[in-house]
Amino acid sequence: MRGLVLGVYTEKSKSGNDVSDYTKSFKDVDEKTNSSLSKTLKQTGPFCKSVKQKILWMPVESKVKFDCISVVDLGTKEVKENPLEGIDEKLERVRSSIADGVKALRSCSDFEEIYLDSCDSPQCAAEGANLAVFSYDALKDQSSLRPKSQFHLYEYDGIPKEYISDFEKGSHLAECQNFARILMDTPANYMTPSIFVKTVTEKCKDSNIKLIARDKAWIESKKMGSFLSVARGSEEEPKFLELHYDGAPDTKKCIALVGKGITFDSGGISLKPSPDMDKMRADMGGAACVTGTILAASKLKLKVNVKGFIPLTENMPSGKATKPGDVVFAMNGKSIQVDNTDAEGRLVLADGLCYAQQFDPIVTLDIATLTGAMMIALGSAATGVFSNDDEYWNVLNKAGSVTGDRVWRMPLYDYYKKAVKASHLADINNIGKKGREGGSCIAASFLNEFIEPGNKWMHLDIAGVMECKDETSYSCKGMSGRPTRTLVQFLKELEGSFIEKK
C-alpha cells in the first residue's frame, strides 16, 4: 500500500481550526483530483485541538496512485516565534505534523511506501517521519513485527532541486540518531565494551571514519587511573575507542567530542536502587551520541575535523571494585578521593578529557548521562550545558533552536569549584562537600579540573533527555539518542572555522 502525508495551513475560529491555505504539494494533488481532495477535506469540518490530522481514503478509480492520504494541520502560515521557547517553531511544526501524519497512516494499515509533503522544509519532514516510527525490536520474534515503511519525498512539477538533497540529509540525520538509540536501548549483555566497539566498527566500515580501539594495556600505559578505577569491578575488559573524521584535510584544526561509555551502571559498591536500574543500559548515551554525530558528519560530508574519544566500561560491584574512600590518580596526575562509586561517569570522563586535549582541539565537548540532578532541574525539555566560553555556547544554543532539541546553560561558579576541592585525602573529591545540593554543577566543576587553562570546553549533561517521554510528536518509546542532531548542527555551524585564510 502507498500512503501520502499532506499539509494545510489553518486559522483559529469559534468552531476549531479552519483551513486557510494549502501547501504546494497539496495543491498539486488537488489539481490532479479535479479539486475533489480539497472539497472532501472541507466536508470533514475544521481541525480541532486534540486532532491535528485527518485520514482520507482514496477511491479505487482515483488518478492519484495513493490508497490513503493523511492531511495534517501545520497551524498558521506566518509563525510568530516565541523567544522564551528557544526553538524555531516553524521547523518544529513540520517535524511534529509530519510525524502525526505518518503515525495516523500506520495506525490504519501497513504501508510499504509513504510519500511526504516537504512543507517547505524537506529536511524536517524526513526527520519527523523517520524518528517517529523508530522501535528497538532486534531481539523480538521478527515474524510478529509490522513491516517497516519506506519514506519518499512527494515531488511535483517545479519542486526546487535542493529539496531532494535536503530530504536525504534529514533521512541521514534521523538514521544516525536512531543508530544512537539502538546502541542505548540494546540490553547490557548484548552491548558490552567489546561489542560496542564491534558494532560501531561494522556501522562505520563503508565510511571515511578512522577507528582505533585501544585495549586495557594501552589505557594503563597512559596512566588513566581514574578510568581504570571504574573498570576494576567488572569482568568485562575496558576499551577506549577513538573515531577520527577529517572533512577539512587542509587544516590541522579539530573539534573533540568525549562520550561517557558506561555500558551498564550498577553504581558499583554504592549500589543503585533496583527500580529502573535496567535503564542503566543507556548510561553510555554520551558515547552513542558521539558515534551518531561523527557518523552523520561523514554522511553529510561536513567540512570539519572531528575526533571522538570514548572510554568504555561497566561499573560493577565485586571484590576488586573501587571502595568509597579510595584514592585514585587521573592521567594529569591529580589525585581523586572517590566517596561515591556511583559518581563514576566523571571519573571516566576525567581521563578522556585529559587525552582529548593532547590533540589541541579548538573546543572540547563532553557528553554524558551524568547526574540525576539534571533530570530534576530541566526534566526532558533540554540538555543542560556548562561552558567556559560564550562564543561556542552561543553556537550550540543556536543549533538547538534549529533542530528543536534544545540546550540550556547552567552555572560554573567558583562556589561549586571550591566544593570539589574540599577533599580530606586527595586533591579533589568526586562528589564534593555539598551533598545532594547542586549535584549537576558539582559534577561539571569536577570535570573542569581536567581542562587545561585557556582551553575552550563545554559539558553536556544529557541525563534528563536520555529517554523519550512526551516531548514531541516524533518522540517514541525507548531511549532518545538526544542531542545527536544538535551536535551535528553545531559542527555544521562551525564549518567556516576550518577554512584556512591565505
Key words describing this protein structure:
502 residues, alpha/beta, 15 helices, leucyl aminopeptidase
Task: Write structural notes for this entry.
- The protein is 34% helix and 20% strand.
- It has helices spanning 24-32, 36-43, 89-108, 122-132, 161-185, 193-203, 216-221, 225-231, 285-299, 345-356, 372-378, 390-403, 414-420, 439-448, 484-493, and strands at residues 2-13, 16-22, 53-57, 68-73, 113-116, 150-153, 209-214, 239-246, 255-259, 261-265, 305-315, 326-329, 335-338, 363-368, 383-387, 407-409, 428-429, 457-461.
- Strands 7, 8, 9, 10, 11, 14, 15, 16 and 18 form a nine-stranded mixed β-sheet that branches. Strands 1, 2, 3, 4, 5 and 6 form a six-stranded mixed β-sheet that branches.
- The longest helix is centred in the middle third of the chain and has 25 residues, at 161-185.
- The radius of gyration is 24 Å and the shape is elongated.
